[in-house]
Amino acid sequence: PQFRGILPLDGFHLSRSLARRMRRGDITATLDVDFDAIIDGCAAREETWINDTIRDLMDQLFAAGYAHGFGVWRQGKLIGGMYGLSLGGAFFGESMFSAETDGSKMTLAFAVDQLRRTGFTLFDTQFLTPHLASLGAVEIPRADYHARLAEALPQQADINSVPMETDPQAVVQRITQTS
């Protein structure tokens, strides 16, 4: 495409209301826990491109360590999630969902924090939606995207090099210090 959506990892916008919701402390975030439930959540809409072939391929990529799922849970219930692919220092967000208010926003906050702490430099959102724009995502021209991608792919980021942060307060603090 002529323009590509990205979420600058140092530019995530955490609104006061979202920060307040996260600080309540009644949520838990996970990485690569119940990947199938995250895919199911992303596919649970009237029209979806996530068919059986995509599910099978994502399961294979997950088993190979390339696909990852972020989830946010409240009282054992998955309330938001996102999955994507990692290659080098680039993370390609494929789909996300929200089962409760701000579920996807909280998921993105935890994901951005994890990606930053583990050496990623590019978060590709593919498209720019109003939802993503409200969180700091931007559109960049194709040439800029290719330059950022060429820089990110040879990097050796490892999404599992540090444990996933489970304390929402710590995530809020880190994000508000850098955005």
Layout: helices, strands, pairs:
Elements lengths: L2 E4 L9 H8 L4 E4 L3 H9 L8 H12 L3 E8 L2 E11 L2 E9 L4 H15 L4 E5 L3 H5 L3 E4 H11 L15 H11 L1
Parallel strand pairs: 5-6
Antiparallel strand pairs: 1-6, 1-7, 2-3, 3-4, 4-5
Helix pairs in contact: 4-7
Number of strands: 7
H/E element sequence = EHEHHEEEHEHEHH
Task: Measure the end-to-end span.
Answer: 28 Å
Major sheet summary line? 7 strands, mixed
Tell me, rounded to a whole number, the average pLDDT.
Answer: 95
- Rounded to the nearest angstrom, the radius of gyration is 15 Å
Helical proportion, percent range: 25-40%
Biggest sheet strand line-up: 2-3-4-5-6-1-7
Low-confidence stretches: none
Q: Based on CA inertia axes, which overall geometry fits?
A: globular
Binned strand content:
25-35%
Task: Kindly describe this structure.
This protein is of the alpha+beta class and 179 residues long. It has helices spanning 16-23, 35-43, 52-63, 103-117, 130-134, 142-152, 168-178, and strands at 3-6, 28-31, 67-74, 77-87, 90-98, 122-126, 138-141. It has a seven-stranded mixed beta sheet with strand order 2-3-4-5-6-1-7, with helices on both faces. Helix 4 (103-117) crosses helix 7 (168-178).
In short:
40% of the residues lie in helices and 25% in strands.
Sum up the structure in keywords.
179 residues, alpha+beta, seven-stranded mixed sheet, 7 helices
